Amino acid sequence: MDVASTPLDDAIDEFTQHRLGQQVEDDEIVEADTAHFDDIVRGVVREQRELDVQVNSALAKGWSLGRLDATLRAILRSGTYELRRCKDVPVKVVINEYVDVAHAFFEGDEPGVVNAVLDRLGREIRGGAGADHGTAGPD
Fold it and tell me: Could you give all domains of the chain from N- to C-terminal order, each with its CATH number?
């Protein structure tokens, strides 16, 4: 949406109808929970200003969201949205999923940036010990 200026509904339709669960450029894109996907995309658009403030606060000193690649911005916004709104998904799962997404797009330091920023935000948003908070385990 950000790069191609695609309208929200068109972007969601494109992914749910033509990408999720399909073969795209020699890569198979796995099936996804389309309602969850829809919620994240719409939620990120709806809450973008608040998400941007939180992401900016978690970036390393001297960095801002505006300096980042559009795809990296989208990954960080989406991960932050999930941390804020999808309390049933443990912090560690959110972080791991978005680090995996970053690895699909980047070969450099970007997955580490995603890990660090979402870990910081996980602690801030949900309390506890970041990636260790919200994981299932014995009491």
Answer: 8-132 (1.10.940.10)
